[in-house]
Amino acid sequence: MLYFLVTLLIFSSMEVVSKPLMPFIDPFQLTFLRFLGGLLFLFLFLAARRRLPELARITRRDLATLAFLGFLNTFFAMSLLQLAVKHSSAATAATLIGSNPVFVYLFSLLMRLEAFSWRRAGGIVAGVGGIVLVMFDRGLSLDIGALYALLAAASFALYTILNKKVVHRIGSLPVNIVSFSFGLAVSALFLLATGIGFLPPAAVTGDTARLAILVYLGVVVSGVGYITFVKTIRQKGPVAASIIFVMKPALATLLAVLLLGEPPAPLFWPGLFLIITGGYLVLRTDVAQKS
Questions:
Q1: pTM value surpassing 0.85
Q2: Domain encompassing residue 63
Q3: Letter string b/e over residues 157-188, b meaning 16 or more CB atoms within 10 A of that residue's CB
Q4: At what angle do helices 144-170 and 172-194 cross, to 10 degrees?
Q5: How many other CB atoms are found less than 10 A from the CB of residue 195?
Q6: Which of 3, 212, 237, 256 is geometrically suited to a Cys-Cys bond with 231, CB 3.0 to 4.6 A?
Q7: How many domains does the chain have?
Q8: What is the tens place of the pLDDT at every residue in 153-209?
């Protein structure tokens, strides 16, 4: 449960923290830089623990899977998420990214990775419904940003499922290091082809606060966050791990209420109740299936 909670806290900060950078940096460039920072952190972390030989476990067949995971997550899903943050309201992006568990569950059923459960399905519906209530008064809109968010949610859902298949054999750190490397290679080719470039603009590097945000996104979100997320997938399964994305908007709103004194919208508390209930139903089902 600890990995679940740490991942929830870290991932919940991503959209809010990165939003101030959007006027100054291209979304694809930001994604490249934050995953480059995450890759460096993970590699140094693995080296410090003297676990570099674990990379030797990876077979040629594993490399093909990890290359696809890198493309799917590092380049495709996360770039789309950054575009969603740029082109839509924070409420729209957070709400539609919160639909991730729906896609995870549907893909799991289609791939016959788990049997249908009314309790789990009801929990997911309740959670997504709660997100809509929580974010309703914050400016939900259907625009190009909404489309980016839905595509990001669906592609990250597929990444979550496929990730579990290799992490049990290889380990979370090697999986992240190798998949990040492949994803960064694709991102680098894209940045070269489009002329965007690799180096962050002076408006970011010349400002201490913006540079600190970039470092945070790399080390904490793309480094620590991915370690705990993959461990959550390994311990609780893809569907239960995806509930993190249901709870993200509620946690961000609750923190604003508690820390900033912002008054909650009338629909916040019933929405929060639905989210907690939905998360409980899914996580309880997960525990019941393992016992």
A1: no
A2: 2-290
A3: bbbbbbbbebbeebbbbbbbbbbbbbbbebbe
A4: 140
A5: 6
A6: 3
A7: 1
A8: 889 888 888 887 787 778 878 888 999 999 999 999 999 999 888 888 889 989 999
